[in-house]
Design goal:
The protein contains 8 helices and no strands. By secondary structure, it is mainly alpha-helical. It folds into 2 domains: 89 residues, RNA polymerase sigma factor, region 2, helix turn helix motif (Rna Polymerase Sigma Factor, Chain: A, Orthogonal Bundle), CATH 1.10.1740.10; 71 residues, Arc Repressor Mutant, subunit A (Orthogonal Bundle). α4 packs across α7. It starts with a helix and ends in an 11-residue tail after the last helix.
Length: 174
């Protein structure tokens, strides 16, 4: 698929082209939402709202080659908004079913490891390592200088390394 051509077509009002773009990036969108939000309903709401905002504003995108970055920024902002709204409320008890897909243990372990990070570090790790976004794109998406992102990624690596040490009671299994 020629991504830039499809984005330009969507910007000209072609609904099918926009649908094609969303279908192409839907798994990435869900992974980002899953890494930032705990609740399945919140994840779905964030993705749905991001799609709606992207549809309404796709014509404003100046550089079609940054469609994915732009879309992920919208999604991340929605996730943060939902997270802030949820942090103001107290949930008495919430049982979450662990979704099984293939190797469910790896997903659970990854989630446990990522949960030891602050939200801002967690976001950077997910974007950089799990979604292979370059530092430059992350910088543009989050409006943070590249140097700051690099130092935060370094800090996150140090925290993850410490969390995985067996003598610290970490998640490392031998």
């Amino acid at each position: 698929m020629d991504l830039i051509k499809v984005v330009k077509t969507a910007q000209n009002g072609d609904k099918k082209a926009f649908i094609q773009l969303i279908q192409y990036f839907e798994k990435d969108m869900y992974k980002v939402a899953k890494s930032l939000l705990q609740n399945e309903a919140d994840r779905c709401d964030a993705v749905q709202e991001a799609i709606l905002k992207a549809y309404e504003g796709v014509w404003q995108l100046r550089q079609p080659e940054y469609f994915k970055t732009w879309l992920m920024k919208i999604l991340a902002n929605n996730c943060y908004l939902i997270h802030r709204k949820n942090s103001r409320t107290t949930v008495v008890s919430e049982l979450q079913a662990i979704e099984s897909s293939g190797n469910g243990y790896a997903e659970v372990e990854m989630k446990q490891v990522l949960d030891c990070l602050d939200e801002d570090l967690k976001t950077l790790v997910v974007m950089y390592y799990l979604h292979d976004l370059p530092v430059k794109n992350i910088s543009e998406t989050l409006a943070i200088p590249e140097g700051t992102i690099k130092s935060k990624l370094s800090k996150a690596r140090a925290q993850l390394s410490e969390a995985l040490k067996p003598e610290q009671g970490g998640l490392c299994y031998e």
